[in-house]
Automatic annotation (TrEMBL):
Subcellular location: Membrane
Membrane topology: Multi-pass membrane protein
Recorded name of the encoding gene: TM4SF5
Designated name of the protein: Transmembrane 4 L6 family member 5
Keyword Hydrolase: no
Transmembrane segments: 12-30, 45-68, 89-110, 156-180
GO CC list: membrane
Amino acid sequence: MCTGKCARCVGLSLIPLSLVCIVANALLLVPNGETTWTKNLSSHVWYMAGFIGGGLMVLCPGIAAVRAGGKGCCGAGCCGNRCRMLRSVFSSAFGMLGAIYCLGVSGAGLRNGPYCFSNNTWSSPFQDSNGDYLLNHTLWSLCQEPPNVVCWNVTLFSMLVAASCLEIVLCGVQLVNAAIGVFCGDCRKKEVG
């Protein structure tokens, strides 16, 4: 496959994934869709891993990859898109770091569980369970407030984990693809956009 076409395909996949991460992180800020509980959130939500790491830090390489799939920087592809591919190498590495950050924080948030009102105090009742609460749904009733917060957090942190895993793979693919594009140029003919 041509490096330019591959870059465009990867970029068009990274952009929606980054938007999914941004939306999932925004929803984590409003447990059960209510702003009443925003002051009582786990620290993993406030690290903004989905917004910053899996979102903005991956959106940049997504856009760079789409641009690298276009015509060369001198108009008709005279440099074989090497300049844009070089930019895509650096931005893909940057995006991979963001996706790894998102995966780490989201995985920890999933393992530790939500911060909720339990046993007459605000705490993280599942913090020492090593994620065992995920399989034992009867434990979810330990969190009395916010309502349905365990399901809310599990769903959204799982989405962030899945999206960031895909982002890591796609950024890695684009890193290799762009490096090949820097050395070999774009295989497309000059008149093709």
